[in-house]
């Protein structure tokens, strides 16, 4: 698995050149997502052994030089460590907020054989102690071990809460997360909608630029659009079906 | 979010929502690929509402030889919402003209609103409603004029007597809907003229209903086509039907024109059909003298205008008395043409407001409704009684699936803002609703509360704001309209700026046109950090692709110290290594660029001086000339004294100058100069301990050899002095 960056010349087709390779010979890379920070470029990479690594670039002019910032397992209790897990897929979604005044954070969910690793968790960078901490978990008590296929963090253009979506083997759910932590330092979360999947495995979830519409694709080969009405009730708004 | 409003009925919730009923619409995605395709679709949102869907062919099939030229996949771009309006105004150019044209009235009105709010705050008084409704009306008229010209195309000088109906360009229901809102909400001064305004409205837009239901307009169009072939019209039922229908909805000029086609007007018939002709003419005259409760009538329209109620009452009574008198006249007995007699009497019944006759003459309930205003209840006023009347008309002429304009009328008459919003957004799209909220809220406190109240369900914004955001999203989806989205976004108090920032970030700024537009917008709305980021992105883009000069320029514009310092470091290293190199010339320009600005960030101007110093040092190395060496020594001192010289460069500079410090023919520096350099050396060795120290890549003995050289020079200088 490699990572490359663009290199173009005027009026010529875009060319890509390889800058850096991540991952060893044993472990596959399942997902890799760039963060939004302007001051230091970060990259989260999830591997098939259940390990997630955060890399960052120290010199903004040198895209070949990545440094490992942290290595983590997707568990709420950072003390517990699990042995090698086997993951089929992973989904990482960075907080789309571009401002550097907020701590960097991302949402991570896995589809693995270790139930504790699966449920989507929000990871936030603690600047004071230079470490990543899980600050919220997006799963009901009974569903914590469910395999997660996709997660997506919606852009926030001014809502007092964050909006996220999670697709598991059972359902698509939409979550609200408080923007400010409670007294325990945790961010309270609330599930605002659940839609059963009916054997349709979700492959991809994307929010539009305002965070008002969620688009999903899945094994049924259709694109679905989800929106909330003026009462805040989420529903399936439209289905797009390929046809010749 | 808007566009999801469903029809109302339950008043307890804002918009009733029942998941059972709301089954999602299925839209086909035409991709044009040969089957089979894989179920694996890939999606990516572009700017605004534009969703890109990648469709792939099944890998098994793409390998066969026949398919070699076939493409393996395709990206289809979907634009969500706003489509209804496009079907309304199906010409993209015309539609864009409306979109562009509505910007300035909208912005103007927002400015007025802000100015009035500021003024009333200053005076501690509520803003004047009268003044505000004046602005809203101006705004409404401007928008209305964008939606196309209606009303009377200039009539030709020689009129074809057989052309009873002029068919202008097809009116748009968007304009029809806007005018309805204008009549009921914007035009406060003429509230008492609403019935007559509705008569005019139907005259202009009855044709719009024709697609869905039979209309008087359609009846007339059909009759006109037939007319050419008819000899004696008065024997044809369609002729009388056309007349009575036109009369029932008040198209008096058409009625009179049709009546004058009556056979009894022909010169050769005049003698034998004198009474008959007299009756026809009497009816035509009565029709043309019909009193109308309105200020004026457009050219060519018939009727007698009465400005106030009492005048109208008198005229109305008199007119009705004349009709009754004619109805009872003995001349009817002398009229031998039976059809003429029957049908003229029928027309009198229409004018006398006979409900059965009117119901027969009209085609759908709106026409019957208008007929009521004209002939039965000319003084109907107040939305409640108008609503009751409408309900009665619907009962008399029920329609299974109401036309969108009918639903809008019912919503307006029912004073149900939610229904109006739902109809507007469902039938006329985001443009309509974003612009119409100003009309709906003008002087209507209930609607204002509904539309402007901040709602937790919407993430803390009002319905009005949410509609504007949706419209701005639609604008953002197109390369030709995204630039006007900021005007709407900036009117959104809560989420507008947030979305504007994202919109600007989404633009491909490495196209210089887009970048300049971006910067302009940022300057307009004080979004300095956004434009700085755009410039950083562009700077890096150019730098990465070998356009170093442009890269530095934009990074300087962005005041990006971090990256400029990195570039300075690179240039420094380069200048240090390749001063004699021929390729130096290409770097010289960059140093020039970085050194010319007086307040350059990151001490880049130092490089300029450094280059000169290196050049003189080069001369020293080439030929051993004391004069040149002395000059080089002087420029070393000046460069070391200069506060713009970054500290991290001090040691490398001194190390480069070892030869000067140990000059054979005698010391080049005097005691104080030596002391200065020793101090600097001391400082830079202390700086090594600091965490932000940058290693320059000198040999490990550099510090000690410089120190030794300086000590030697100092010793010799002391001796000389």
From TrEMBL, chain A:
GO molecular function, one term: structural molecule activity
WD repeats: 195-227
Matches recorded under SUPFAM superfamilies: WD40 repeat-like
Keyword Iron appears in the UniProt entry: no
Record-linked Pfam families: WD40
SMART domains tied to this protein: WD40
Entry keyword set: Nucleus, Protein transport, Repeat, Transport, WD repeat
Predominant place of localization: nucleus
Family matches, as InterPro entries: Sec13/Seh1_fam (IPR037363), WD40/YVTN_repeat-like_dom_sf (IPR015943), WD40_repeat_dom_sf (IPR036322), WD40_rpt (IPR001680)
One Gene Ontology cellular component annotation held by this UniProt entry: nuclear pore outer ring
Family: Belongs to the WD repeat SEC13 family.
Name this protein carries in UniProt: Uncharacterized protein
Native species: Lactuca saligna
Taxonomic placement: Eukaryota, Viridiplantae, Streptophyta, Embryophyta, Tracheophyta
From TrEMBL, chain B:
Family assignment from sequence similarity: Belongs to the nucleoporin Nup85 family.
Pfam families xref list: Nucleopor_Nup85
BP GO terms, sorted: mRNA export from nucleus; positive regulation of DNA-templated transcription; protein import into nucleus
Main subcellular location: nucleus
Entry keywords, A to Z: Membrane, mRNA transport, Nuclear pore complex, Nucleus, Protein transport, Translocation, Transport
Identification of the protein by name: Nuclear pore complex protein Nup85
Transmembrane segments: none
Keyword ATP-binding set for record: no
Domain of life per record: Eukaryota
Oligomeric form and interacting partners: Component of the nuclear pore complex (NPC).
Gene Ontology molecular function, alphabetical: structural constituent of nuclear pore
The protein's role, per its UniProt record: Functions as a component of the nuclear pore complex (NPC).
GO-annotated cellular components: nuclear membrane; nuclear pore outer ring
Annotated compartments: Nucleus, Nuclear pore complex
Record has tRNA-binding as a keyword: no
């Amino acid at each position: 698995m490699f990572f490359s960056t663009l290199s173009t010349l005027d009026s010529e087709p875009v060319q890509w050149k390889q800058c850096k390779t991540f991952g060893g010979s044993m472990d596959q890379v399942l997902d890799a997502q760039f963060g939004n920070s302007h001051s230091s470029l970060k990259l989260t990479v999830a591997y098939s052994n259940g390990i997630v690594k955060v890399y960052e670039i120290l010199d903004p002019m040198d895209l070949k030089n990545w440094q490992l910032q942290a290595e983590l397992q997707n568990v709420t209790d950072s003390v517990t460590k699990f042995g090698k897990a086997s993951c089929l897929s992973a989904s990482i979604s960075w907080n789309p907020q571009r401002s550097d005044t907020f701590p960097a954070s991302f949402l991570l969910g896995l589809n693995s054989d270790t139930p504790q690793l699966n449920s989507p968790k929000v990871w936030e960078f603690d600047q004071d102690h230079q470490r990543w901490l899980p600050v919220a978990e997006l799963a009901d008590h009974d569903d914590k071990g469910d395999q997660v296929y996709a997660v997506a963090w919606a852009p926030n253009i001014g809502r007092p809460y964050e909006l996220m979506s999670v697709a598991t083997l059972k359902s698509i759910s939409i979550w609200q997360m408080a923007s400010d932590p409670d007294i325990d330092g945790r961010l309270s979360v609330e599930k605002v909608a659940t839609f059963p999947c009916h054997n349709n495995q979700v492959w991809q979830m994307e929010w539009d630029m305002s965070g008002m519409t969620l688009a999903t694709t899945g094994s049924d080969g259709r694109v679905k659009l989800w929106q909330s009405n003026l009462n805040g009730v989420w529903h399936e708004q439209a289905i797009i079906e390929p046809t010749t | 979010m808007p566009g999801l409003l469903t029809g109302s009925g339950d008043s307890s919730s804002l918009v009733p929502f029942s998941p059972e009923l709301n089954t999602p619409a299925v839209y086909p995605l035409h991709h044009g690929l040969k089957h089979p395709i894989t179920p694996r679709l890939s999606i990516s949102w572009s700017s605004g509402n534009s969703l890109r869907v990648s469709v792939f062919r099944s890998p098994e099939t793409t390998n066969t030889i026949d398919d070699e030229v076939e493409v393996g996949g395709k990206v289809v771009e979907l634009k969500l919402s706003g489509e209804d309006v496009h079907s309304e105004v199906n010409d993209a150019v015309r539609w864009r003209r409306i979109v562009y044209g509505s910007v300035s009235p909208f912005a103007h009105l927002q400015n007025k609103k802000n100015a009035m709010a500021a003024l009333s705050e200053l005076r501690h008084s509520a803003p004047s409603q009268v003044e505000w409704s004046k602005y809203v009306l101006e705004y409404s008229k401007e928008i209305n004029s964008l939606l196309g010209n209606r009303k009377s195309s200039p009539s030709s000088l020689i009129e074809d007597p057989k052309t009873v109906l002029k068919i202008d360009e097809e009116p748009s229901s968007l304009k029809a809907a806007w005018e309805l809102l204008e009549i009921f909400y914007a035009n406060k001064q003429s509230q008492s003229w609403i019935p007559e305004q509705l008569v005019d409205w139907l005259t202009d837009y009855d044709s719009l209903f024709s697609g869905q239901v039979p209309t008087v307009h359609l009846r007339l169009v059909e009759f006109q086509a037939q007319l050419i072939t008819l000899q004696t019209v008065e024997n044809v039922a369609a002729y009388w039907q056309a007349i009575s229908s036109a009369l029932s909805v008040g198209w008096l000029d058409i009625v009179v024109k049709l009546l004058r086609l009556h056979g009894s007007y022909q010169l050769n018939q005049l003698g034998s059909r004198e009474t008959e002709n007299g009756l026809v003419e009497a009816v035509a005259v009565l029709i043309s003298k019909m009193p109308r409760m309105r200020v004026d009538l457009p050219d060519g329209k018939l009727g007698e205008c009465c400005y106030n109620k009492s005048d109208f009452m008198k005229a109305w009574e008199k007119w009705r008395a004349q009709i009754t008198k004619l109805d009872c006249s003995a001349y009817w007995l002398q009229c031998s043409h039976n059809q003429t007699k029957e049908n003229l009497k029928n027309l009198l019944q229409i004018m006398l407001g006979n409900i059965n006759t009117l119901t027969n003459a009209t085609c759908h309930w709106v026409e019957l409704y208008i007929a009521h205003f004209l002939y039965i209840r000319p003084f109907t006023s107040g939305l409640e009684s108008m609503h009751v009347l409408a309900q009665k008309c619907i009962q008399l002429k029920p329609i299974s699936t109401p036309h969108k304009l009918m639903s809008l009328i019912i919503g307006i008459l029912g004073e149900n803002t939610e229904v109006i919003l739902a109809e507007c957004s469902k039938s006329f799209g985001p443009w309509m609703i974003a612009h119409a909220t100003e009309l709906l809220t003008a002087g209507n406190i209930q609607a204002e509360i509904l539309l402007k109240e901040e709602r937790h369900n919407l993430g803390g914004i009002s319905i009005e704001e949410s509609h504007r955001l949706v419209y701005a999203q639609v604008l953002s989806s197109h390369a030709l309209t995204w630039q006007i989205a900021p005007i709407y976004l900036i009117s959104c108090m809560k989420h507008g700026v947030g979305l504007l920032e994202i919109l600007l970030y989404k633009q491909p700024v490495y196209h210089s046109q887009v970048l300049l537009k971006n910067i302009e917008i940022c300057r307009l709305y004080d979004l300095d950090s956004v434009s700085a980021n755009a410039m950083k992105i562009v700077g890096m883009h150019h730098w990465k692709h070998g356009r170093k000069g442009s890269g530095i320029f934009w990074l300087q514009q962005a005041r990006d110290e971090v990256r400029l310092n990195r570039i300075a470091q690179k240039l420094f290293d380069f200048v240090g290594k390749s001063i004699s190199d021929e390729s130096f010339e290409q770097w010289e320009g960059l140093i020039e660029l970085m050194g010319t600005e007086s307040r350059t960030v990151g001490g880049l101007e130092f490089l300029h001086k450094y280059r000169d110093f290196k050049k003189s040092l080069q001369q020293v190395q080439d030929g051993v000339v004391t004069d040149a060496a002395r000059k080089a020594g002087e420029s070393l001192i000046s460069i070391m004294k200069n506060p713009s010289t970054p500290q991290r460069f001090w040691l490398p500079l001194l190390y480069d100058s070892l030869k000067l410090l140990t000059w054979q023919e005698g010391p080049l520096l005097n005691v104080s100069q030596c002391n200065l350099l020793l101090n600097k050396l001391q400082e830079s060795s202390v700086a090594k301990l600091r965490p932000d120290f940058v290693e320059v890549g000198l040999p490990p003995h550099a510090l000690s050899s410089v120190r030794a050289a300086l000590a030697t020079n100092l010793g010799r200088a002391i001796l000389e002095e």
